[in-house]
Design a protein that fits this description.
Order of helices and strands: EHEEHEEHEHEEHEEEEHEEEEEHEEEH
CATH superfamily of the largest domain: FAD/NAD(P)-binding domain
CATH architecture of the largest domain: 3-Layer(bba) Sandwich
Number of domains: 2
Distance between the termini: 37 Å
Largest sheet: 9 strands, mixed
Number of strands: 20
Number of helices: 8
Structural class: alpha+beta
Bound molecules: flavin-adenine dinucleotide
CATH class of the largest domain: Alpha Beta
Radius of gyration: 22 Å
Helix content: 10-25%
Length: about 400
C-alpha cells in the first residue's frame, strides 16, 4: 500500500487510486482511460477477462446514429472518434461503418419514428425504391408495401474484440487486472473505499461500478423497478453461395408483423446472425441466468420470420443460439454518476440494450467523474433520479 498524490485529502493508504468493478463493456473502457491518463487503476472481473457471459458477447453490435434511440444522443457525436482512438492504440479493427438498412411497412412504428426523427434532425431519410433495394441488397425479400431507409452513418462493432483491446491497452499502460474475483461488498470508509471479494479486501480512493446485469446486486436500492433483460441471439446457415457480405447484407433492423428483428453478416463462415431486437424476457436476479436456455416458442417464431424475410437464401433452422443479459432501467436511460455524498462511488450501468455503441465515450465520462473533472453525467442519466 502507498500514500497517493491523487487526492490531496487522502491520508489512509490505498492499493490504487481508482478501482473498477466489472471489466465488461464499460469497465474495460474505463480501465483503459484511467491507465492512459496515468491514474493508478485496478480492475476486478468475476470471470476471465473477455469471457462469454457478458452484455458484450454474441459477435456483433449495431452502431447507429441515434434517431431510433434518442437516449444515446448526448454522446453519439463522439463515438466514432473514441472507437478510432482505441483502434489506433490497440492495433485492432473494431468499428466498421458499412451503412445500415431499416425496413418496414410505411405505417410501422419503426419507419414512422425514424422518418420523423431524421426529418426533425435535418437529415430527411433516404428511402430506397424496391428495385434499388432488390438490386443492392438482394438477400432481403421486401413484402407488400415495405420500404427501406438507407443510413450511411450506421455500422457494426466487434464487441468481444473491443473489450479485450481495451483491457490489453489498459494493462500495457500499467493497470492491474484481477480476474476470477467477484466483488461482494463496496463500502465508503472515511476517505477511501473498501472493495471486498470472498477472500480479500482492497482500498481505493474512488471506485467505478460497471457490473452490468449484476450491478443491482451491489446497489440493491438504486433503481426500483429495474430488471434484467434476456436477449436471444441466433445464427442461421446460409444457402447457396455464401455471399452475405457487408455490401450485400449490411446491418439491418426490420419491423415485421410487429416484431423488430436485426442482423449482420457473420464472421462464422456460412452463417448469418439474425435475431430479435430487444429483450424476450424480464428477470429479477442473475440467479435466473441461463445462457443456453432455448424456449421452443421463441425459436419457432424467429425461424418463421427469417423464412418470410429471406426466402430461400437462409435456412430457417438456427444452428447456434445463446442468451445474453443486460441491465434495464424503467425509463431506458442509463445510470451514470456518483451515488454517495463524498462522490467516491461512481456507477455506470443500466444501459438497457443500447450501450455498446457508446462504450468508449462512457469509459471516458466515468474517468472524468472519478477524477473529479466532472461532477455529474448527463441530467437524464442521474443515478439518483429514481430514489429522490
Ligand atoms: C444480445 C445483445 C445485443 C445487443 N445489441 C446492441 C447493439 O446492437 N447496439 C448497442 O449499442 N448495444 C447493444 N446491446 C447493449 C450493450 O451491449 C450493453 O448495453 C452493454 O454491453 C452493457 O455493458 P455493461 O458494461 O453494462 O455490462 P457487461 O458488458 O456485461 O459488463 C459487466 C461486467 O461486470 C462483471 N461483473 C459483474 N458483477 C461483478 C462483480 N461483483 N465482481 C466482478 N465483476 C463483476 C461481469 O462479469 C461483466 O464482465 C446489446 C446487448 C445484448 C445483450
Amino acid at each position: 500500500m502507498h500514500h497517493s498524490p491523487y487526492s490531496s485529502s487522502c491520508s489512509a493508504p490505498t492499493d490504487a487510486q481508482v478501482g473498477v468493478i466489472g471489466l465488461g463493456t464499460m469497465g474495460s473502457m474505463a480501465l483503459w482511460h484511467l491507465a492512459r491518463e496515468g491514474i493508478e487503476a485496478i480492475g476486478w472481473e468475476q470471470f476471465r477477462p473477455g469471457h462469454n457471459k457478458g452484455a458484450f458477447s454474441g459477435e456483433a453490435r449495431q452502431f447507429r446514429a441515434t434517431y431510433l434511440e434518442p437516449e444515446v444522443d448526448p454522446v453519439m457525436p463522439h463515438a466514432v472518434g473514441a472507437y478510432r482512438e482505441l483502434e489506433e492504440e490497440s492495433g485492432t479493427s473494431l468499428l466498421r461503418i458499412t451503412g445500415g438498412l431499416t425496413i418496414g411497412q410505411p405505417s410501422s412504428e419503426t419507419i414512422r419514428t425514424l422518418s420523423t426523427r431524421m426529418g426533425q434532425a435535418g437529415h430527411p431519410p433516404r428511402l430506397l425504391s424496391s428495385s434499388e433495394t432488390a438490386r443492392r441488397f438482394p438477400k432481403h425479400r421486401l413484402r407488400g408495401q415495405e420500404v427501406a431507409i438507407w443510413n450511411e452513418e450506421a455500422g457494426m462493432v466487434r464487441p468481444e474484440h473491443a473489450v479485450v483491446a481495451a483491457l490489453s491497452a489498459a494493462r500495457s499502460s500499467g493497470a492491474q487486472i484481477v480476474p476470477y474475483s467477484a466483488v461482494t461488498t463496496v463500502e465508503a470508509a472515511g476517505n477511501r473505499v473498501a472493495v471486498s471479494t470472498a477472500d480479500q479486501t482492497w482500498y481505493v480512493e474512488k471506485v467505478i461500478i460497471t457490473a452490468g446485469a449484476w450491478s443491482w446486486e451491489l446497489l440493491p436500492n438504486l433503481v426500483p423497478d429495474s430488471y434484467l433483460g434476456r436477449l436471444l441471439v441466433t445464427w442461421f446457415p446460409v444457402r447457396g453461395r455464401a455471399d452475405f457480405t457487408e455490401e450485400t447484407f449490411p446491418p439491418f433492423l426490420r419491423e415485421v408483423e410487429g416484431h423488430r428483428i436485426y442482423g449482420f453478416p457473420s464472421h462464422w463462415d456460412g452463417t448469418v446472425r439474425i435475431g430479435f431486437a430487444g429483450p424476450r424476457q424480464r428477470l429479477r436476479t442473475p440467479a435466473e441466468f441461463d445462457w443456453l436456455h432455448e424456449p421452443a416458442s421463441e425459436i419457432a417464431e424467429i425461424s418463421r420470420l427469417v423464412e418470410q424475410c429471406f426466402g430461400d437464401e437462409v435456412d430457417p433452422t438456427p444452428i447456434r443460439t445463446s442468451n445474453f443479459y443486460d441491465a434495464y432501467t424503467p425509463d431506458g436511460q442509463p445510470v451514470l454518476g456518483p451515488v454517495d455524498a463524498q462522490q467516491r462511488i461512481i456507477v455506470g450501468s443500466g444501459f438497457s440494450g443500447r450501450g455498446f455503441k457508446m462504450a468508449p465515450v462512457i469509459g471516458r465520462l466515468l474517468v472524468e467523474l472519478a477524477s473529479g473533472r466532472r461532477h455529474s453525467g448527463h441530467k437524464a442519466w442521474d443515478p439518483l433520479r429514481f430514489i429522490r
